[in-house]
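A note from the maintainers: we've had questions about how concatenated examples are separated. There is no special marker in the raw files; a new sequence line simply starts the next protein. For clarity in this README we add a label.
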Amino acid sequence: MKICIVKTDRMGDMILTLPVINAITRDKTYKVDIVSSEKNYKICRQFKDISKTYIYKSGLSNFVKILITLRKEKYDFIYNFSPYWSSFILCSLSNSTSKSTIIHLSRNKKI
C-alpha cells in the first residue's frame, strides 16, 4: 500500500509528524513518501522509514512538477498536514484513492 504525506511547513511540525510515519511503517507492506519543504527535507532524509521525499519549493513550475509526480504514483492514501492552499490543492488533484486534510489551527491565523 502506498501512502503520501504532505508536510510543507515548519521543522518542528515535521518532527511531531514523525511518530505518525513510524506507526504507519510498522507494517512493512506500507510504503510512505513525503512531500516536504526544503527545511523538512533535512529531517526526512535521516528517517529510514520514508521511501521517497519530494522537495516542495514555492513557484508554479515546481508545484506542477510535484503534482504530476503525485498523479503518476497513484497513492492509495494521501494525507495533507499543512495549512496552505498549495498543499490542499496537491492533495485534492492527486489520483489517490483516499484523500484527507488535517490542519491544526491553534498557531495559524483564523481567516
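[label: protein 2]
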Amino acid sequence: MIHARLVLLAEAGEDMEKIGRSIEPDNLPNMNLLIGEGCLSLQFSIQKPGTLLTTMDDLLMNIKIAKETLSVAEDR
C-alpha cells in the first residue's frame, strides 16, 4: 500500500475552503481532505504506483479547474 499526501498552499486571495469543497465530490473512499487556514491537504492510499500517478494527475487537474472557475465567478 502506498500512502500519499498532497499539500497545497494558498496564493494571495485564494479561498482554499472553496477550492477544497469544489473537489470534495471527486474524493474516493480512501481519501481524506483537510482544509486549514491557507492550505489544503489530501491524504490517500493507493495500491499501485501507476494508480498513484493517475490519481495525482486527476487531483491536480480538478484543483486547477476549480481555481479557474472560482476566479471567473469572482470576476463577474
